[in-house]
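Help! Submission page says 'invalid entity' but I think these are all valid:
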Amino acid sequence: MQWLNAIVQGVLLGGLYALLAAGLSLMFGVMRIVNLAHGVLAVVAAYIGLVFVQSFGVPPFVAIFIVVPIMALVGYALQWGIFNRALARGGLAPLLVAFGLAVVLTQLLQEIFTADTRTIQVGSLATDSIKVSDGISIGVFPLLTFVVGVSVIIGMQIFLNKAPLGRAMRATSDDVETVKLMGIDNRQVYALSTALAIATVGLAGMFLGMRTQFSPTFGDAILIFAFEAVIIGGLGSLWGTLVGGLVLGVAQAVGAQINPSYGILFGNLAFLAILAFRPNGLLPKSVTL
Amino acid sequence: MLVLLAAAPYMVGRGMQQSLVTLFSLIVLGTTWNLLAGYGGMVSIGQQAYIGIGAYGLVYLAQTAGIDPFIVVPVAVLIAGVLALPISFLAFRLVGGYFAIGTWVIAEVLRLITVQIPALGGGSGISLTVLNELSPGRRIAYVYWMSLIGVIVVVGVTYWIMRSRLGLGFTAIRDDATAAASLGVRVTSSKRFVYVVASMGAALAGCMIAANTLRVQPESIYSVNWSAYMIFIVVIGGIGSIEGPILGAVVFFALQQWLSDLGSWYLVILGVVAIFIALFFPRGLWGLISGNGRIRLFPVGYTLANPLEQRSLGPNGRQSQREG
């Protein structure tokens, strides 16, 4: 029963990983940018949320509606200010710039907020749980996170399939030259894609900040988890990212069940196993993005 | 210059020698990371894996097996090379940015495994106490000379690789892997070779760091900050040249020392500078100094002579840009 419980908890955790990974997947899909600052941006969102909750007394769930638009603006500005220039420069520039950004933001957070761990208090919601059977109880907050994560991914997929802007993003991903000929400014499409990606990671960061303790260097782990979810699932597919997140969550939960210090190691080993035996991921290119 | 550096233990104090060892390790890290990214086109943020293997290899073999530390260094470097080969098969399944994070995951896995091994001191690390049998003055001088030899070997080997047929192939791969392959360059095996050599270089730097500080701890030796150092050194100094990383390491080291009272602000400043340089001056400081490659201390590239400039003198009377 405790194994089943570990798997259930892993699936719930996986929903959060999928939410963290969705933006990484989107930015790679549209622009071929691997945003190495993705993890730290989630932590930036959590700190902004913390400031609103602690200093201004905003309720945590209201703070989400403030933080997510802020992060969307941050993403939009980053794309116009930095990434579009780096893409024009080509070669290794986007990757090096993203890495530089990640280091700078991490160190700035450390200078501003110190290296202490923090958390966004959500009161009794943090411990409330629903008892399913003797060995299994589902936390209300992890369940909520899971539902939000899965909904966002479904919403993003519908947006990319149906909405005019979503279609423009897919078109830009497929053939940027033709898109330009059609009168679409690809840089603007890029900026809106990054805004969407950073908004989702901001949302994920808020949930993460309410769920666990975080510190400035927590972005490193988040980037790695998000990346592992993307690769396990298979590049270029949001459904794959969702599956990848769930697999990673379960692997970590099962590892932690064996020995509390094995959790992250097991997640990494699951990733390396996929890399060795199914390098295209579990759901490669089932939906093109 | 080299004579002066070789004689340093007779002229400067111990603290200065230790600082120079740190600088040498940064030069080795920058030079080998540049070999990987600047010539091989592979951006790794996981070279700390090999720094850790080198450092732990040195300390474990010297402490437990009781072999002379200075003999262990080449052994530890070789071990890193042997481990890098199978790891490359895993890492090379990924390209570009995903290769970068993949190498980082591998480094993290090594850290998490190291922490679980009691013989390596678990989470708290181990000390290199055998070197204390030497008097401090001697110990520091020996470590200094070892590091000086190390840095000369690494820069020399890099220069040799880039002058060779392989080097020309690497430059072709970096510029266009598909075109290079179609012209008969063995892309994957060339990249693998460069990956193994660069990893051995990182392991050598790990040995220098461990011999200099006499202690390895998993959290700091496998820290991703090493990758930040390497990338900033190479980007600021000038990616894709041999001189660039050396210059970058000196700049990095100077700024690190100068701003040491201000915590990690030096990393913020270096990061901003690196972003700025990557966006606007892709050849880095060395590119600015050398006028985009006209002056070369280590001539490795082949430039086309501009026939127009050769025949009629340019406006500033320059005749040809081939010398150097």
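Support: the input was valid. A stray whitespace character was the problem, and the output above is from the cleaned input. Chain B has two domains: 2-223, 224-299.
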